[in-house]
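Input/output pair, single chain:
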Amino acid sequence: MKTSEYSYVLPKELIAQEPIEPRDSSRLMTVNRENSEIEHHIFTNLTDYLDPGDLLIVNNSKVIAARLYGKRIPSGGQIELLLIRQLREGEWEVLAKPGNRLKKGAKFIVGEGEATVQGQVLLSTNLGTRIIKFESEKALQNALKRHGQVPLPPYIQKPLSAPERYQTVYAKVDGSAAAPTAGLHFTETLLEEIEKKGVQIVFLTLHVGLGTFQPVRTDNPAEHNIGVEYFSFPEESAKLIKDAKKSEKRIVCVGTTALRALEQVAITCGIGENQQNLEALTQCQGWTDLFILPGFKFKLTDALITNFHLPESTLLMLVASFAGKELAEKAYTAAIDERYRFYSFGDAMMIT
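Output:
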């Protein structure tokens, strides 16, 4: 298997530069793994493809305003930091620009006015990130609150007039460097309609980190380092999933982050194929570097709602693993032919 096998040519004008209004008016492609049929709908039609008793698994992580600007000390050179994950009090892993000016020992100040914080680079990682020690976690949080900016993906060139549009309506737990974008299609009204149909909304948390921004740079995808992300899975969700599985109801993951978190939970709890050891499913939390490639055995996920992803990305490889590579290619070709909108603010597909 080669990374180049997951390449495709996307017309630049199909990269969505802004979210559609209202959220649930985006398009929805349905992809059936049993008969390979592909159909085209609107996201508000989603309830037609959910059955009473199904569970909708959503990632309630919230994007933090994690981008800060500042200056190097003492030169005054401009810098940009994107906070990826907290390691401990006052210590963070970050993406830094310009990286060649922020080597081990470099000092800086970020923020403005009274909401500033100083820091120092402790080391560089093999992922190209920096480990930063800030003078005070409290001062850092004050600078983020006053001057932090929500980080948008680099392929979005247009400024976002309403930052809340890069959050899901159910975002609750601060911690992500990027939005779990499949969830951006849901409105409060649509969620209410889904629940009225007898579908329960089940929450878990995965703080989206560096892996979202990093392309696969190795010829062999298995050699790619996806990085680690924090996940948390509550006992209430474990009980709902066990009951649904026993009743032969579907587990529908909203987004690749929800799917990766859920499948990591299955691994952590020792769940086997065909729900072997299902009773062991319980609350858990920790760090995951789960990279799903073709051949992966899905333990809990029955269906996936997801956006259309970048060529040669870990997310596209996950979709190909779940749908099957040939069907995934067929779906992406249809999406381009039908002029679907791609990436974070784009349209969605549901793979059943």
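The domain at 3-63+162-351 is CATH 3.40.1780.10 (QueA-like). The radius of gyration is 21 Å.
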